[in-house]
Amino acid sequence: MRGRKPIQRHIDADHSHICFKPCGIKGSELQRVALGEDEMEALRLADYEGLYQQECANKMGISRTTFSRLIESARRKIADALLHTKAIRIS
Predict the structure, then answer these.
(1) C-alpha dihedral sign at 73, 87, 6, 60
(2) Phi and psi (nearest 5°) for 32?
(3) Tens of pLDDT along 32-80?
(4) Which of 15, 36, 44, 64 is a good FRET partner for 90, with 20 to 30 A between their CA atoms?
(5) How far from 48 is each of 1, 26, 43, 61, CA to CA, in Å?
(6) How far apart are CA 54 and CA 35, in angstroms?
(7) Which residues of 57-84 are buried (b: 16+ CB within 10 A; e: fewer)?
(8) What residue spans define the domains of the chain?
C-alpha cells in the first residue's frame, strides 16, 4: 500500500551540494546530518526572512502543518549537528 503522492514544493534557491563542518576536524572523520532542500527552504523563510509559518507554507505551496513538521525537523537536525560535532550536508 502506498501513501499519497508528495506535493511539489516551491523552493526559490538551489541549496544542494552545500556542506558545513566543524573547524579543525577532517570531513572524513565526521558523522553527517542530511538536511533536505525543503528543510533548508523552510529555515530560510522562517528564520532568515522572518515570515510567519502560514506565509512560509503559502510560499512553499504546502499546508501550515506540513511546514511546521519541516521546520521542526530542520531545527532538530541543525541542533544535533552543532551539539554533537557533525557535518551538515544539504541534499
Answers:
(1) positive
(2) -120, 150
(3) 999 999 999 999 999 999 999 999 999 999 999 999 999 999 999 999 9
(4) 64
(5) 39, 29, 7, 19
(6) 22
(7) bbbbebeeebbbebbeebeebbeebeee
(8) 38-90
